[in-house]
Amino acid sequence: MSITSEPIDFTDLDALVTTVAGPVLTPTDDGYTAELTGFNLVTIPAAQVVVGATGAEDVATAVRYARANGLRVGARATGHGAPIEGRGTVVITTSRMTDIVVDPVARTARVGAGVRWRDLAAATAPHGLTGLAGSSSSVGVVGYHLGGGLSPLGRRFGWAADHVRSIELVTADGIIRTVDPSAGSDLYWAILGGRDGFGIVTAIEFDLFELPTVYGGGIFFAGPAAADVLHAWREWAPTLPEEAGTSVAILRLPPDPGLPAPLQGRLAVHVRYTHTGDPVAAAALLAPMRSAGPILLENIDVLPTAALDAVHMDPPGPMPSAERGSILREFPAAAVDALLEVAGPHVASPLAIVEVRLMGGALTRPQRVPNAVAGRHGAFNVIAIGVPAGPLGDQVGSHLTAVTRAVSPWSAGALLNFCGLGAAEREQLWTPEQRVRLETIRRRHDPTGVLRVDDPSFVG
Fold first, then answer.
1. Residues of the chain with CATH 3.30.465.10
2. What fold does the segment set 213-423 form as a domain?
3. Which partner for 375 in 130, 135, 344, 415 could form a disulfide, CB atoms 3.0-4.6 Å apart?
4. Residues 211-214: contacts with CB under 8 Å, at least 24 apart
5. CA–CA separation, 456 vs 454, rounded Å?
6. How far apart are CA 242 and CA 350, in angstroms?
């Protein structure tokens, strides 16, 4: 563990303004709301002070200011996490911290806390390399890794968190530290998978993989065929080799002219598929699913790995949303029927996406270096995402609960980046022994709760 930074003590806001390189904003300042607003527009955020950090020193200074004034600290990078708000809170935004260093020989990347996957892909693609990106390139690289990092490529390569080499973070004492597995650091173990309340991550270094292209995309089936498609998928998916990844989603699509015409305003069932091996073999494996129902659209081909967004086709821009997730031990016919009962084509639902994703493969293997990533035992992951706007917007919560209850007989917990739960509920993701260890580490490094907010977003 390395430690840097000179001590600075002050209680005057003007001292903070003159010390940090980035903007310091209060609710009366122009740009305050824009600085706080992230990808999830479900609430209008608020904070007592917002610090737009340009580097680790700005973050450390803001934390010391908060400590000197008895304030709590939260962080926001791309804003995909839960909002941080409230009087008595200093929110540090790290979106300006966008440095990327790629070492094509060592096959590593070091990125700042504000880097999104699309930025990293642009830097790694010329070398034929990729990180273990998620389904959307708008997501922040750091927060994604800290929550585990479940990639469409995960069955082949494992969790993104398992490939992190070092982490630079600012702890609650306002000191910049670098932790890595060589010293057996408790912070390294906890923050990779525990994510919240251990420090504000300013940069990480992690492995890259030689994978210039991937065979992938999706098949959109007509909504009325949902039962046939889901039952066919649940039998087919577990037969796939580790080189293949897949998910199936019930989509309620808006009448957006930016969507392909066959999908605009439609309910569709989307089978997503990736394969990291031979395209001919990949196509042959997918063939049985093509007869599962009437096809509205298919877009599967050899893709640059930097274009992995084309597989899930997640919304590219900010939107209000709420989500809940569960991991399942199995996905039998009864689970399909239960899910269709609450989210199938006959239901008037505000849920834009109800997805079941195949796990297993390398995701179940022991870590090379232990960390706190939860959910390794899961066979499938279910996530439901609703839009709390429009005619049914006020029913999102009840429909999310209905999905969770429907699959509860087969549930075995949840994944941190997918669960959408409050702080207290998230604690149930780990075993009792892991919870004790996580809380012990939190208290050791933050005994006064500087980094503990009521509903923390991911750090970084």
1. 100-210+429-445
2. Vanillyl-alcohol Oxidase; Chain A, domain 3 (3.40.462)
3. 415
4. 211/128, 211/129, 211/130, 211/153, 211/276, 211/305, 212/125, 212/128, 212/129, 212/130, 212/304, 212/305, 213/302, 213/303, 213/304, 213/305, 214/153, 214/274, 214/275, 214/276, 214/302, 214/303, 214/305, 214/308
5. 6
6. 34
pLDDT recorded at residue 317: 61
Angle between helical axes of 333-343 and 226-236 (0-180°, round to 10): 150
pLDDT of residue 307: 95
Q: At what angle do helices 396-406 and 333-343 cross, to 10 degrees?
A: 170
pTM of the model: 0.91
According to the model, what pLDDT value does residue 44 have? 58
CATH topology for the 100-210+429-445 domain: 3.30.465
Rg (CA), the chain: 22
Q: What is the pLDDT of residue 456?
A: 36
CB contact at 8 A, 62 and 53: yes
Task: Count the neighbouring beta carbons within 10 Å of the beta carbon of residue 357.
Answer: 27
Tokens of 114: 């504000």
Question: From the first residue on, what is the mean pLDDT of each consecutive set of 10 residues in the chain (460 residues)?
Answer: 52 86 90 74 70 96 92 76 61 94 98 96 97 93 95 97 96 94 86 91 97 97 98 98 98 92 96 97 96 96 95 76 92 98 96 97 90 94 89 90 96 88 68 93 92 45
Which residue spans within 142-293 are E strands per DSSP?
Answer: 164-170, 176-179, 200-207, 209-210, 213-222, 244-252, 267-275
Nearest CA to 329 out of 370, 382, 367, 371 is that of 382
Residue type, 241: P
Give the pLDDT score at 134.
Answer: 94
* 12-93 fold: 3.30.43
Per-residue pLDDT at 457: 35
φ/ψ (deg, to 5) at 433:
-65, -40
Helices (H), 212-257: 226-236
